Automatic annotation (TrEMBL):
Parts of the chain that traverse the membrane: 6-29
Membrane topology of the entry: Single-pass membrane protein
Source organism of the structure: Flemingia macrophylla
Recorded GO CC terms: membrane
Name listed for the protein in its UniProt record: Cytochrome P450
Cofactor(s), by name: heme
Taxonomy, superkingdom: Eukaryota
Protein family (similarity comment): Belongs to the cytochrome P450 family.
Length: 457
């Protein structure tokens, strides 16, 4: 009996020691080892701080600029990406920061950026931000469009689901901005409980829509002419081609995730693009006039059509420049899945990679001395010519993981901008305060106050 008890106690002690070792290794030994490896290769950064890393400094530097508006300027990096810019100024263009116990290497060299974006096997998506995008204020139009495109006749239910996704993303942001404590997301706080409640509601609603569509398909009814219908029909066809093998194709959980992606990829990018386009065209009436003249020349006062969109050279230049100065997302994060060589760097598995879009887009060494000016004509000969074929312009990401909503977003933006220009001229309201801030996506903190004037036809 005593021998058995002693054995149990030894096993418990070994388990405690093993758990203690894992925690110590995760919180201290491994971060210090990774820090040594990075410094040995010439990368500089702040010394690792137990548990929190740079999160306290990041939160402080993020919140200070947001306390008041800025003068109207396109040099917004000190406001929306102050900590990363501070790190680059302090430690050099390729340096590292700390997200808790995880080192994050900042990459600004276009050639290295290109390698990261193209290599999806070695550089996976970061899972630190489970919900990566958030709805821009003031423009429900794009949400309505993508709801109809995604769910067709189930449009109203789709709108409700997208509204829940918006709320869930806002709550996710609140949770992410809390102090970094491992396992905190499992604590049943009011925010975490509401997030789980929303997740259950979204999944139940999507399952109901999907099950009804799948039943209709099995009964021989034609699929709906929307994204969900096309997705389900394609999935069913793949399963049938494999002899009704249930192990191929997508299961219902996969389809649910795709439906969420419809919202984020197709709606979010367009919303913020339209908001900043309205603001900048209000600020630069000469470009607004040139864009209106082009729209009227191509479409007159008729509804814009797909065939005419390719003729909108000036509108396209304006949208590209807006995306350069005010990209929907100011940063891309990737995870190093295995030890990998990137340029002259040997990056160990587990390290994060940060691609600061906003800083690269505003780099005078890459774009010239007017990098912080609004000059749409820099894109008069296309993106490749403007960038000299370098990876210095990637508002939608790049490589195999480029945002699937890119073409949809640009097409929708061209149509909406054209329709507005046909009917209205616009200017910034005296109440407008220039205050870009990144709530996952880049938004005007105090809204986009624009005054519309009817254009005489």
């Amino acid at each position: 009996m005593e021998a058995a008890l002693a054995t149990i106690l030894i096993l418990i002690l070994e388990l405690i020691l093993l758990c203690t070792w894992k925690v110590v290794n995760w919180l201290w030994l491994r971060p210090k080892k990774l820090e040594k490896l990075l410094r040995h290769q010439g990368l500089q950064g702040n010394p690792y701080k137990l548990l929190v890393g740079d999160m306290k400094e990041y939160a402080k530097m993020r919140n200070e600029p947001l306390s008041k508006p800025m003068n109207f300027s396109h040099d917004i990096s000190p406001r929306v990406s102050s900590f990363i810019q501070h790190s680059l100024n302090k430690h050099g263009k390729n340096c590292f920061t700390w997200v808790g116990p995880i080192p994050r290497v900042i990459i600004t060299d276009p050639e290295l950026i290109k390698d990261v974006l193209n290599n999806i096997d070695d550089f996976g998506k970061s899972n630190l931000n489970p919900q990566a995008w958030l709805l821009a204020p003031g423009l429900k139009l794009t949400r309505d469009v993508i709801s109809r495109a995604s769910f067709g006749s189930s449009y109203e239910e789709g709108r409700r689901i997208f509204q829940l996704l918006k709320e869930q993303t806002e709550l996710t942001l609140q949770a992410l901005l809390k102090v970094y404590i491992p396992g905190w997301r499992f604590v049943p706080t009011p925010i975490h409980r509401r997030m789980k409640e929303i997740d259950r509601d979204i999944k139940a609603s999507l399952k109901d829509i999907i099950n009804k569509r799948e039943k209709a398909l099995k009964e021989g009814e034609a699929s709906k002419n929307d994204l969900l219908g096309i997705l389900l029909e394609s999935n069913q066809k793949e399963i049938q081609e494999q002899g009704n093998n249930k192990n191929v194709g997508m299961n219902i959980e996969d389809v649910i995730e795709e439906c969420k992606l419809f919202y984020f990829a197709g709606q979010e990018t367009t919303s913020v693009l339209l908001v900043w386009t309205m603001i900048l065209l209000s600020r630069y009436p000469d470009w607004q006039a040139r864009a209106r003249e082009e729209v009227l020349q191509v479409f007159g006062h008729k509804t814009p059509n797909f065939d005419g969109l390719s003729q909108l050279k000036i509108v396209t230049m304006i949208l590209y420049e807006v995306l350069r100065l005010y990209p929907p997302f100011i940063n891309l994060a990737r995870t190093v899945n295995k030890d990998v060589k990137l340029g002259n760097l040997l990056l160990p598995a587990g390290v994060q990679i940060s691609l600061p879009i906003i800083l690269v887009h505003n780099d005078c060494e890459l774009w010239g001395g007017d990098a912080k000016d609004f000059k749409p004509d820099r894109f008069s000969e296309g993106v490749l010519k403007a960038t000299n074929a370098r990876a210095s312009y990637f508002p939608f990401g790049g490589g195999p993981r480029i945002c699937i909503g890119q073409n949809f977003s640009l097409m929708e933006a061209k149509i909406v901008v054209s329709m507005i220009l046909q009917r209205f001229s616009f200017e910034l309201s005296p109440t407008y305060s220039h205050a870009p801030y990144s709530v996952i996506s880049l938004q005007p903190q105090y809204g986009a106050h624009v005054i519309l004037h009817k254009v005489d036809i």
